[in-house]
Amino acid sequence: MPQSLRDDQMWKFHAYRVALYLLDLAARDVQDLRARKCFPHQTDQLLRAIASISANVADGFGRNSAVDRSRFFGIALGSLRESFTWYRAVHDELSPEVIELRFEQLAELRRILIGAQKWLSGKPQRSHLM
């Protein structure tokens, strides 16, 4: 990652780093599937859903209120759950090991985001968090 991104406070938020890592992995998976001309609609949707996770985590991180931040983390969770579906849609074209690893990584990120939402629920309505 470029230093300019690593210098941002958001880089300290583990969920964001995991989401970006998943985006890199999904981009490689999609590139492989596209090269083999497999499931063009599903691969486009997969990449959009995965990209939406890190985008919404970043958007939420930029919010000052716990409620706003939690709302964007919830949107990221929706995209994350959608990503499970799109990986399932292309599972025949990727190795079982890759699919299982992606599901595990998505599940880890789901746990982190749900934990962040629970933590935020106990915070004041308006504050500078993280």
Describe the structure.
- The protein has 130 residues and is an all-alpha fold.
- The protein has a single domain (14-121), classed as de novo design (two linked rop proteins).
- The chain contains five helices and no strands.
- Helix 2 runs antiparallel to helix 3 (40-61) and helix 2 runs antiparallel to helix 5 (96-121).
- It is elongated.
How would you sum up this structure in a few lines?
With 130 residues, this protein is mainly α. The chain contains five helices and no strands.
Tally of distinct domains: 1
Please state the overall shape, judged from the principal axes of the Cα atoms: elongated
CATH topology: de novo design (two linked rop proteins)
The CATH H-level superfamily is: 23S rRNA-intervening sequence
Percent in helix? over 70%
Please count the helical segments. 5
Q: What is the highest CATH level, the class?
A: Mainly Alpha
Helical/strand content category = mainly alpha
Q: Quick check: average pLDDT?
A: 92
* Radius of gyration, CA atoms, in whole angstroms: 16 Å
Q: Number of DSSP strands?
A: 0
Low-confidence stretches: none
H/E element order: HHHHH
Major sheet characteristics = none
Beta-strand percent range: under 5%
Note the gap between the termini. 21 Å
Q: Would you identify the CATH architecture?
A: Up-down Bundle
